[in-house]
Amino acid sequence: MKGKNTMNKKFFIPAIIVVILVVAGGFLAARNSAKQESENASKTEREVTLNEQLAGQNATSGTATPSATPVASPTPTPTPPPDSHFSGPGDSGEGVDTQVFEVDYNGTNFSPASLSVRVGDVVIFKNSSSSAFWPASNPHPQHTDYPEFDAKKPIAAGQSFQFKFTKAGTWGFHNHLNAGAKGTIIVK
Q1: Phi and psi of 155, rounded to 5°?
Q2: pLDDT tier at 97 (50, 70, 90 boundaries)?
Q3: What is the DSSP string of 29-64?
Q4: How many CB atoms lie within 10 A of CB 128?
Q5: Tens-place pLDDT, residues 102-130
């Protein structure tokens, strides 16, 4: 019987090892499959989220996705020069109905001296003079008529200041560094 027992052990131990390897292999295969499915689901979820974000951006920008019905877009807003100074966060002039206007300062006068715009429009005050200027609302020197409309610092020659008008009214302005240079922005 001793010989038969030894023979059973010779087959039994390798058989157990084979069973363990098969079970372990099956477990690893199932785990990798579940991991792959999870990654695929996560990728699909990210793609759906990205598509939703793009659809939202397209909806707000007036552009259409390839499968959507084309929508007429307004005239694009010109990009301000890189040396522009903005009146505040989000006042870069971007918007569906936003128009951008330019007022030039030559060292003595603003041109045009009077400008009509709509609420939400942007005016770029361009310094074409050889010295700094500081556009700000009236009265001088307090700038209290429209306190937000104030560059709050000198703007160097060749640079510009950009302001988005969000309040309706007639707003007198001046060069804080040369208060005799004046103008008016009418916001409807």
Answers
A1: -105, 120
A2: confident
A3: HHHHHHHHHHHHHHHHHHHHHHHHHHHHHHHHHT--
A4: 13
A5: 999 999 999 999 999 999 999 999 999 99
CATH architecture, range 84-187? Sandwich (2.60)
Distance CA 17, CA 152 (A): 81
178 pLDDT band, cuts 50/70/90, is: very high
Q: Report whether 124 contacts 84 (CB < 8 A).
A: yes
| Distance between CA atoms of residues 59 and 64, nearest Å | 7
Q: 156: burial class by Cβ within 10 Å (0-12, 13-18, 19+)? A: middle
Tokens read off for 153:
């610092």
- Rounded-to-integer distance, Cα 188 and Cα 170, Å: 9
138-175 pLDDT, tens digit per residue, is 999 999 999 999 999 999 999 999 999 999 999 999 99
Is the pTM for the entire model greater than 0.85? no
E strand or H helix that includes residue 180: strand 178-187
The residue ranges of every structural domain in the chain are 1-73, 84-187
- Tell me 138's DSSP state: S
> Counting beta carbons within 10 angstroms of the beta carbon of residue 98, is it exposed (0 to 12), middle (13 to 18) or buried (19 or more)?
middle
